[in-house]
Model the fold of this input.
Amino acid sequence: MMSQEQNDLITRTGPGTAAGKVLRRYWQPAALAEELVSSRPVVPVTLLGERLVLFRDDDGELGLIARHCPHRGADMCFGRLEDNGLRCPFHGWHFDRTGQCVEQPAEPEGSRMHENVRTVSYPVIEKNGIIFAYLGAGDPPPFPAFDCFEAPESHVFAFKGLWECNWLQALEVGIDPAHASFLHRFLQDEDPNEGYGKQFRDRAAGTDIPMTQVLREYPRPDINVEETDYGLRIISLRHLADGRTHVRVTNQVFPEAICIPMSNEMTITQWHVPVDDGNCYWYSMFTSFGKPVDKALMREQRLKEHRLPDYAPLKNRSNNYGYDPEEQKDRTYTGMGLDINVHDQWAVESMGRIQDRREEHLGKSDAAIIRYRRMLRSAIEAAGKDDAASMPMAVDAARAAAITGPVAVDAIADAGQDWLETYVAADQARRAACAWANAR
Ligand code: FES
Ligand SMILES: [Fe+2]
Done:
């Protein structure tokens, strides 16, 4: 149990907050690249409570500047995209992508006032379908050599969705291995051959058992949590009745991502990014170790469940997440359909905008959440002292290049077989058979 102050400390991320200072030390997903595919590539972005506008200029370069014009505050999202920058429609002040004001056409001829006017501007970079922004002080850190960044563009599909809750409770559902046995329980198994692009619809690795059956019949995993150079490795063991052990390896990637297996072919790297303290986006990179990703199919599956342009889910609080008590009797544990994103969304939104952690009771199954909060608090302390070197992944380019994986895999250990060797071997076999992982 924690105090209100402690809960505020780890949940609030706006400008000037302690946890916000931690998150600002890392690249943050700001938009999907597909959002800028239009005849006028300008989109509003609210990130860590900061109102910004993202655009692509005539040179194809990205800019991320303050939403409000530094003249008298008009909304730059309605700006004219011209001359490699954005021009405010109110009085024509023109900003380049670095935020420098380059022209003030209503000021007297020859005025040099514009030279002293700059608006907020942040570095941005595009990686496999996601545009990342760096909102912190100093130079941005190097990207680690994670699979989702190293895989060719053909093997990564990116998508996002809006959840109306604080980022931390959204992240915490992703490092809670027991919930999948309940929240995502299917009371009947579907045909795993129909499961492309969906979580938990494959067979358990190396078996004919649907993942849904493993999760349903073995709800009490042993959970091992290890600290790593990128965050936490979470190993969940489900001891099957026939003596074999199902090993599931998932990860917390500091500060606010997870990396988990989705199927035998694909992993999901998912960030939970604060819009403000009461809303967040999940951004996912689905990375295939097998065939190129069928992006059209995966996008179509997800667009059926979300509306544009804000990627808000169609099932939500206003329609009870599609809750159907008849379905809950004999098809799903939640009665909210087969899309597991909706289950997670209900779980985290139903806590309230910011979960009241003064009232919670953590158990053994919450081991990774407890460890994560400890890591976050020590990073908050380090950031408070500007001791970036004590924060996970605060490393130089050479060391970042050595941070690979992370291993996210499902595997089955035969009776008597060491589960550690089993998952390492399963991961190595997958990489050995993967064209792009092998070419590295
Ligand atoms: S408010 Fe933008 S130019 Fe005046
Ligand atoms: Fe979940």
User: Anything to note?
Assistant: Residues 173, 179-180, 183-184, 340, 344 surround fe (ii) ion (ligand 2) (CB under 6 Å). The chain has two domains: 40-133, 145-438.
